[in-house]
Amino acid sequence: MKLLIAIVQDQDVDFLTDALTDKGYRITKLATTGGFLKKGNTTLLLGIEDSQVDEVIDMIKENCKKRTAQTQIVNPTAETAMFQSIPMEINVGGATVFLIDVEKYLRI
Predict the structure, then answer these.
(1) What is the pLDDT of residue 105?
(2) Could you read off the pLDDT of 61-91 as tens digits, one per residue?
(3) pLDDT value at 37 more than 90
(4) Helix (H, G, I), strand (E, B) or coil at 28
(5) What is the C-alpha end-to-end distance of the chain, expressed in Å?
(6) Where are the alpha helices (DSSP H) in the chain?
C-alpha cells in the first residue's frame, strides 16, 4: 500500500479529482499555498494499492498540464531606495508527487 501525495495547481485540481473519483479513488483535499509564487494550490492525499500507482500517475499527467506564467521578481541589488521588480516568465503547472510506503491502513 502507498500514500500518494500530489501537489496540484488550483487550475487543474477539479479535472484531476473528477477523473480520480470517476475511477473510484477516495481523495482527501487540502488547500495549500506554494512557497515560490505564493499562489494557491491543492494537496491531494490518496491511499492506493501498489498495483494502482501507474494508473494514478498517468491520470495526474493527463490532467495537470505545464504552462508559462508571468511574475515579478524583486531585484535586491538595485541601487535606488526603491527595489526594482523585474518581469519574468516561468513554467508552472504539472504536479509534484510523493509516494510513501504505508505500513498499515485503517478506515474506521
Answers:
(1) 86
(2) 999 987 776 666 666 665 655 566 777 766 6
(3) no
(4) strand
(5) 17
(6) 10-22, 53-63
Q: Cβ contacts of residue 3 below 8 Å, gap of 6+? A: 45, 46, 47, 99, 100, 101, 102
pLDDT of residue 106: 87
Contact yes or no for 37/88 (Cβ under 8 A): no
Q: Give CA separation, 65 vs 8, 14, 74, 84, 106, in Å.
A: 10, 13, 27, 31, 33
pTM over 0.85: no
Checking phi first, is residue 39 left (phi over 0); if not, alpha (psi -120 to 50) or beta? beta
How would you classify residue 15: left for phi > 0, otherwise alpha for psi between -120 and 50, otherwise beta? alpha
Sign of CA dihedral 19, 61, 55, 43: negative
Distance in angstroms (rounded) separating the CA atoms of residues 2 and 51? 10
